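Run Cupin domain-containing protein through structure prediction, thanks.
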Amino acid sequence: MEVFKLSDMTKGWFVGSFTPTALSTEACEVAVKHYTAGTREEAHVHRVATEITVIVSGRVRMAGKEWGEGDIIVLAPGDVTDFEALTDTVNVVVKTPGARNDKYLIDPASCR
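Sure, done. The structure for Cupin domain-containing protein is below.
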């Protein structure tokens, strides 16, 4: 048995082909993300990975729509999104396959 602390992981990412990690794999990446209200991420797209976001608590805006607790948003490769935490939020994020450096910033106008 091995035991890890989420607080020791980088930005909540604890499964994937990076260091530190609880499980090293290229099959997927998994994170528990904590956001404070007002936190934003720029418009982006993934070219290889499918990204699944589960809103565990709080409210967010992604791709111009609001989502809340229990919502599961699946972004296929090429889907454009941005992100804003409308309240303090906890999300679980899964990317498959684990495709490092697969986040491409784009013009925010394409999210509307």
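The first strand starts at residue 13 and ends at 15.
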